[in-house]
Amino acid sequence: MTAATGLSGAGVGIEIDDIQSGALRPRPVPYEGEFNFLRVDDRHAGRALLRRLIPTIGGGLAGPDPSRDAWVAVAFTYQGLRALGVPQESLDSFSRPFREGMAARADQIGDVGESAPANWEPPFGTGEVHIAVSALSTDAARLAKALERARVAFHETPGVELIWQQEVRQLPTGRTTFGFRDGISHPNIEGLGLPGSNPREAPIKAGEFILGYPCETGGLPPMPSPDVLGRNGTYVAVRKIHTKAAAWRRYLRANTSGAEDEALLAAKMVGRWPSGAPLTLTPEHDDPELAADPHRNNDFLYRENDEQGLRCPAGAHIRRVNPRDAAIIGDARMHRLIRRGTTYGPPLPEGVLEDDGADRGLVGVFIGAHLERQFEFIKAEWVNDGNFIGYPGEQDPVAGHHNGTGSVTIPEKPVRRRLRNLPSFVATRGGEYCFLPGLRALRWIAELQD
């Protein structure tokens, strides 16, 4: 493999250096980050902004020391590409979910009730989000340096307006607002030279994640045209999710007999202990040493280690969103995603059981070449229903929309346990479907002529 091109197992050359680095590299640990949404009021100004941003956007994989790296990524909504003057013929060639936008497909992906677009934080779902600029780094100083030129471009380009900004950072505990370590898993993508987090996972075709290459079906995924626009790009679902940490704690407290029982129930709902140690490998107690070992904390399969779900329930959060080799309806490899969760807001103080009114949660980024059979399928079938694991009507215990009426089955011997009257522990504050182009495509958009 050269610096510019990797070879897949089938000999397909992957133009790694043309792929925005934000698409491929795992999230740094620790991390500081920022998401910015821009509205383009003048297409010429929007293209001028892109020309100023392109030098800040890197391609390819991390350098020799990825822990000291920082990068900026730029993506566009359908309305954003239209605002920049992308020809209608090209706009029509994008996937239907992308063209319609996340808000229009809310019912299909379970954004209902308090999570419905009518309750979203502006400017999500308004059509005014045109460009999404994200940056991640290992510390605030490197983040500021990575964003310096971008911020100047935002504020010195008339006709482009910064309309939303969200800072994200790893909490001092290294965990989410629910108290669990996040960002542990990364798929093994064929031909990239970037090892997956699970040593037992066979490489997944690059076309599941990057356009222009064969996917798991053996064919090429539908790609926007012309070729220069679609190739080496990917789709991104961006979500702002509010987490109800106090409700989570109250439910655990009300349904357990003590601290140890409470910790075990939380782990059964998530599928891992707070440290990140998987229940499949350590079902009785947390094991921080195992969790800290990247060669061990993902080294498991469900059929081999826990086919009946007596360790990690089939309905647990991590087993639902990545069933691995578990016996399910369908093929899990067809629905893999690159997932990145970044935390925003302050942690709820330790021991507090009442909501303090603070906005806290995560900004989730879900990357894949097929919005419909990856992100949307996972949300509709794996998170919001239980048919695929034999529990019809049961939703993800952590990410499902329960509204006080949810139920979850936890296999146990001699008698299974049934959790009832689950409230919703998360609420969608907004979301957008974006297209993350390759670097050549960025230059093509920036140089468009009327």
From TrEMBL:
InterPro entries xref list: Dimeric_a/b-barrel (IPR011008), DyP_N (IPR049509), Dyp_peroxidase (IPR006314)
Domain DyP dimeric alpha+beta barrel as annotated: residue spans: 71-156
UniProt entry tagged with the keyword Transport: no
GO molecular function, one term: peroxidase activity
Cofactor list: heme b
Record's GO cellular component terms: cytosol
Keyword annotations of the record: Iron, Metal-binding, Oxidoreductase, Peroxidase
Superkingdom of the source species: Bacteria
Keyword check for Zinc: no
Record family assignment: Belongs to the DyP-type peroxidase family.
Protein name: Dyp-type peroxidase family
Organism: Actinoplanes regularis
